[in-house]
Each structure stands twice: as C-alpha cells, then as structure tokens.
C-alpha cells in the first residue's frame, strides 16, 4: 500500500504547492514529542457541517438506481447510501490549507488562541508530505477540497468525493485533505493513525502566533532548533489577532 495518484476528476496540489497547518499549544507539544502526520477517523470528526449526504445526494442516488435493470432498486439504493455513510468508520483525514494569509479564524479555530496565546503555523510543500506518505503502510491520497452548494449532488459511483468536499461557506479555508480510505482492516479500526517524520525534513517555516509572549517564543524556537530547524526558518507573526472568530 502507498500513495495513490488520483485521476483528473480531482484537483490535486502540485509538488511545489505550499501547505500550512495551525497547531494549538497542546497539539504543538505532541508534534514536538512525536513528529508525525495525524489522521483522525471521520466518525470522531467533531464537525456537524461535514460528512453527511444532502437531500440532493439521496435523491440523485435513488434516481440513478431507478434507471438500472434492478428489480429491488430501492433497497440497493439504500445499501448504497449506507455504504457511503459508513466510509466514516474506515476513513482518516489530515487537513492542511493553501492559504498563505493569516486570519483570525485560522488562529482561533485551529490554533485555539482563546485557550492559550501560544500557537504555531507550520509551512511545508506537497512534495515533502508525499515523501512521508510514500512510506505509509496504508493507501493514501491527497486532493483539494471541493466546495458545494446544497443543490449540488454527489457523483454516483464516485464515493471518494464524499471525503473531499465541504459546504460552500467554508471556501475561504482553501483546504487540502490527505485521506486514508478505505482502511484495510475493517474490524476494530483505530481512532487515529500517525505517519512519523523528521521535522527537519518537513518544515520550511515555523510561524509563532503574535499573541505568544517573548519567553514562549524563545522556548518554541529552541525546541524546533533542537529538531534541526534552522533559526531563520522560525519567526514570530506580526498579524494582529483579534478577540472572537472572523467568519
């Protein structure tokens, strides 16, 4: 099992694409102790706006099965819907963004600035992440998220698109997803998967939140330098993070 190159149906970031991920203090501690890509199983994903079939999806699936030479097309359509929704139990995701500009939403939602003023943003490239994924013991792929309206229906027969789409209102996130699916071990899949790497092989820049104290910044800087990150790749943000979330 290895990294899978998707066909033209999906928008895939090229190898030079810069990717960013925000880490809260708690997640930063974990990253520094156990450097790895973290993949969350989708039925543990705490987001009510994601990974469900819309009314348009359900209608489209039933309509598609009606044109096939099936006697029990309604039951088959129901099984199809169940198969898609159960992907959540056997699929894992790591989320990144191509958005270079900092926003209050990114720092608050993903850096969890409201809980602790210290957070960081890591920058890498698609090429460097692919080098990690090629060593992964699972089938894994990467794609830009597609942002849809409620009237847009999932393409029948292309169940993977269920994993790389999101409501239109989130389009500013410019998300890229790394997906492990379906997990080969259908019995007792883990709650999460980690793909280890060396930070020095992945990190092109560490951006520390502007809300962090000078002492916190120096501590974080030294910790990354201990992992082989050059000091000129570590800087403190000057972005004025406001209270509350920018939607």
Structure description:
This protein has 247 residues and is an alpha+beta fold. The chain has one domain (18-236). It has seven helices and eleven strands. It has helices at residues 25-33, 55-66, 73-85, 104-110, 126-133, 199-202, 214-226, and strands at 18-24, 36-41, 92-97, 119-125, 140-144, 146-148, 165-167, 175-180, 192-196, 205-208, 234-236. Strands 5-8-3-2-9 form a five-stranded antiparallel sheet, with no helix packed on it. The chain is elongated, with a radius of gyration of 20 Å. The two termini are 39 Å apart.
Beta-strand segment tally: 11
List unreliable stretches of 5+ residues. Answer: none
Task: Count up the helices.
Answer: 7
Order of strands, main sheet, comes to 5-8-3-2-9
List the helices and strands and how they pair.
Blueprint: E1 18-24, H1 25-33, E2 36-41, H2 55-66, H3 73-85, E3 92-97, H4 104-110, E4 119-125, H5 126-133, E5 140-144, E6 146-148, E7 165-167, E8 175-180, E9 192-196, H6 199-202, E10 205-208, H7 214-226, E11 234-236
Parallel strand pairs: 6-7, 10-11
Antiparallel strand pairs: 1-4, 2-3, 2-9, 3-8, 4-10, 5-8
Helix pairs in contact: 2-3
